[in-house]
Specification:
The chain has two domains: 172 residues, Rossmann fold, CATH 3.40.50.720; 158 residues, N-(1-d-carboxylethyl)-l-norvaline Dehydrogenase, domain 2, CATH 1.10.1040. The chain has 15 helices and twelve strands. It has an eight-stranded mixed β-sheet, with helices on both faces. The protein has a four-stranded mixed β-sheet with strand order 4-3-10-9. The radius of gyration is 20 Å and the shape is globular. Helix content is 45%, strand content 15%. It is of the alpha/beta class.
Length: 348
Amino acid sequence: MTLATSLCVVGAGSVGCYIGGRLAAHGNSVGFIGRQSMADALAQHGLHLSDLHGQHWRVAASAIRFSTDLSAAADADLILVTTKSAATADIARGLAAIARPGAVLISLQNGLRNAQTLAAALPQHIVLSGMVPYNIAHAGNGRFHQGSSGELAVSAHAALAPWRALFADAGMPLRPRRDMLAVLWAKLLMNLNNPINALSGLPLKAELQQRNYRRCLAMAQREALALLALDGIQPAKLTPLPATWLPGALSTPDWLFRALGNRMLAIDPLARSSMWDDLERGRPTEVDWINGEVTTLAERHHRPAPVNAKLIDLIRAAESGGKRNWSGAELLTALSTASAATPATSNP
């Protein structure tokens, strides 16, 4: 199915190129806005997309509309915002000046509050929260690979009606949700693995096959879940197991987790976290919008969050050239030491 109206991807990195590319590969009018380096790569190689199920899609370079200027989104009916969270405020101000009346915006970003930031700058527009559950790896030369499973989720709204068939036709159905805060927290609980994966230096599947790394993730998740309980937030169920069961499942012996993990989430053997990719490319990570959300929640409740705080510190050190390629035992010791050194509560 092809619509006469157009959509634009703002922030054409890994997620933006993959989702926009899948839509373009099915004949839809898609504009991409991103860095000059990406423009040059796609002009030379086009888009080559693949997923963990062995499917492939291509978009010829001649068919790609790419701009480095935000004004290219001025005529779009649907704007998918896929920038890093640190850029959201600037993008919001820019879009407020050029987005046409009636345009719908969907934030497909990590973190919890990007849609709120966009909506504050664009009060006359419909701004929806979205969630991308899967990992996208950028292999260079216009190649993007979906390395894990899941379905796109977005805030339920009547404005989605003209677009749902388009996404479904491209094999990426939009699942409307009325509990997006719970969905975003559930995704964030999974993303607490991003710094662990980045510090391990391993592909996601290899990392998660080692119990010590999983125990690190379980510690970070338990910390977050305890804080969410204080807010009365029950994370949505995005895997066959409820979110509150995940730390226990992660802590099981390797042989048992292999059976559980295959049911919970399909992961390509080569997939890595976006945080690992950021470190490899010398870019700032999104750790403040992932683990930082846990420490922010802890501060609001005057509680400590030593595990997530330590992961933030280790990632910031890695961003500055510090230690990477931690073994599971080393990382578990560092997090356990930080946790043991922190009182259970703190005073206002």
